Amino acid sequence: MKVLRRIILGVLLVLILLCLVPLGAYFWSQWAAAQWGCEFGVPMGRDGCVVDGVDRAPMLIQAYSAAAVLVLTLPVAFISTIVGLVILAKRPAEKTSDDV
């Protein structure tokens, strides 16, 4: 039973991390635009963001638009966190001599 509990907690942890990937993409796009000296938002779509001769605007806009997926992934991460906390709060049943 302990092994099954650890597997479930591991799967929940991976699920929570995957649900937070769009949030990381959103923050990365903001950070990268600031580092490259680009104005983020509507001007980026119009003027672009040229870094070393390559327009990075499409990549940044795509990463920024991943924030829309958070509407779906954040509730899943929240529910997974609650389930994980419930699993952690329950103590595994101790073995008695009758279980052997």
Relevant terms:
two-stranded antiparallel sheet; 100 residues; 5 helices; mainly alpha; 68% helix; 2 strands; single chain
Element layout with pairings:
Blueprint: H1 2-19, H2 21-35, H3 42-47, E1 50-51, E2 54-55, H4 57-65, H5 70-89
Antiparallel strand pairs: 1-2
Helix pairs in contact: 1-5, 2-4
Report what the structure shows:
With 100 residues, the protein is mainly α. The protein has one domain. The protein is 68% helix and 4% strand. The protein has five helices and two strands, in the order H-H-H-E-E-H-H. The protein has helices at residues 2-19, 21-35, 42-47, 57-65, 70-89, and strands spanning 50-51, 54-55. The protein has a two-stranded antiparallel ribbon. Helix 1 (2-19) packs antiparallel against helix 5 and helix 2 (21-35) packs antiparallel against helix 4 (57-65). The model has no long low-confidence stretch (mean pLDDT 87).
